[in-house]
Amino acid sequence: MLGGTVAVVGGSIAGCAFAAAAARGGARRVVVLERSYGELTDRGVGLCVHDDRYDELAAAGHLDEGIAWHRLTRRHWLVADGSALGRLVWDQPFPFRSYHWGLLWRGLRERTPATVEHRLGDPVAGVRNTSGAADGPPGAVVRLLSGGEEHFDLVVGADGYRSVVRAAVCPEARPGYAGYVCWRGSFPAGRLAALDHLAGPADRAWPAEHAATVCFPGGQCVLYRIPGQEPGRPMVNWVFYAPPPAAGLRLEDPTSIPPGAATEELTAHVALLAERHLPPYWAALIALTPSERTFLQPIYDLDTPRRTSGRLLLAGDAATVVRPHNTSGAAKAIQDAVAFEDAWRRAASWEELIAAYERDRGEAGRALVTLGRRLGRAQVEQAPDWTTMDPVRTAAWWDEQLAGTAGFGGHAFRSAVAPVAGPTAS
């Protein structure tokens, strides 16, 4: 199926991947409509991609070694015991690549074909299907916040968990608040030298290829290194799951408090949590984070009853919001794009393309949401008494969480995807 016009609403990771997929699939025109001005590289949070998922996404032409990444091999589960680092509960294999969100986005953006049109600072107010006759030719209309309207053969909603496109596809679907939050922060890893007096040099106290999960009643803190903006200067990235602060925040409606927007009261709250629950080394590490690099992200999840409606299609977090415990968000978004491109190559019409995408990714999305909820209950909401856990018990507890699922770190593709040639950089 060649030709046609595609609008991608949202230009982040999912948006870039879908733009590349549509252009490589054969679209005559692809337009990315991103509400933000400028580049998105200032989003310095970390994310991880399982080694197996990376191999699949690289074979499909979306990832490659040229995008900065940091190797992780082990995850240490720890609990406070009076020592600087805490007691090792379990040494878990952890075959992941960690990424800096902004650098991954830049790599995907640079790898979109040169024919893709990126329009920054052009927010979308709404979308609707058209059915022909007086309503215009079959397709979909994008209504811009500036007041104009544009017609496309297909509109992809890659606009995140507060998606405008989802409101048209399934208006009844809204992300549900899980009842707890995560704090996030990052800073240059060179600052770890300030903690040498607690546990010795950082590479010995906390090896660069190790992630750490520090557990306490009602929460946990996950820490790992990610690439920095400057080559050879990695950053520390941490995610702190805990009950919400009693600060009168309205968290039931999808929201977040981005870096630089958290009040002194909120940043002091996470510092107090760290001091109260974490071993001294990890509490001091959290305290090294500048307030402008600290933000609050309430935990939501969403399983949409459908991903498509007419010529509208949902991708990434617009389609399914998965709790971060599964470490699958970026892989899920790019897998959506790979499935979309694969369906495009096999389809003879828009209807076949849309139906194939719904069949392939609907089931996968539901499974990921279910697993994320299970992991959230086991690790935060109904966590075990960590003081009683040892390597044997923890490994069995972990296996119980994954029983009957397709595994941690995202699911494998349901069908083999043929390797494709790398895209032409813009």
UniProtKB/TrEMBL annotation:
Residues 308-369 form the FAD-binding domain. Keywords: Monooxygenase, Oxidoreductase. Pfam families: FAD_binding-like, FAD_binding_3. Residues 177-290 form the 2,6-dihydroxypyridine 3-monooxygenase substrate binding domain. The keyword rRNA-binding does not apply. InterPro entries: DHP_3-monooxygenase, DhpH_subs-bd, FAD-bd, FAD/NAD-bd_sf. One of its GO terms (molecular function) is monooxygenase activity. The keyword Cytoplasm does not apply. SUPFAM superfamilies: FAD-linked reductases, C-terminal domain, FAD/NAD(P)-binding domain. Transmembrane segments: none annotated. This is FAD-dependent monooxygenase. The lineage of its organism: Bacteria, Bacillati, Actinomycetota, Actinomycetes, Kitasatosporales.
